[in-house]
Write a structure and sequence with these properties.
Layout: E1 9-12, E2 21-27, E3 33-41, E4 44-47, E5 54-61, E6 67-75
Antiparallel strand pairs: 1-4, 2-3, 2-5, 5-6
C-alpha cells in the first residue's frame, strides 16, 4: 500500500500467489470500522478522501476471509 501518509487515495498493490482479489477493512484506533470489506484487485485505488485525518489500521483479507496482514495508515 502506498502512499503513506496519504491524503485522498491509497494505492493497493500485491504480489501473492493465488488470489487475484483481496478484501480490505479499515478501522480507527478505537476499533471502529470506517471502511468495510472493499474488494480490491492488484493496482487498485481506494478513495480515502472522506476519512478524517489520523491513524487507521488497514486489514487485508484473502480467500475465505483469512487475515493476511494488518498495516498502519496515516491519513493527512
Amino acid at each position: 500500500m502506498y502512499s503513506n501518509p496519504a491524503t485522498n487515495d491509497l494505492m493497493v498493490n500485491f504480489n501473492l500467489p493465488g488470489p487475484s482479489q483481496l478484501s480490505i477493512t479499515m478501522v480507527d484506533p478505537r476499533g471502529k470500522i470506517v471502511i468495510s470489506n472493499i474488494k480490491m484487485s492488484k493496482g487498485s485505488r481506494l478513495d480515502i478522501s472522506e476519512l478524517k485525518s489520523g491513524m487507521y489500521f488497514v486489514q487485508v483479507f484473502g480467500k475465505n476471509n483469512q487475515l493476511l496482514f494488518t498495516d498502519k495508515l496515516i491519513k493527512e
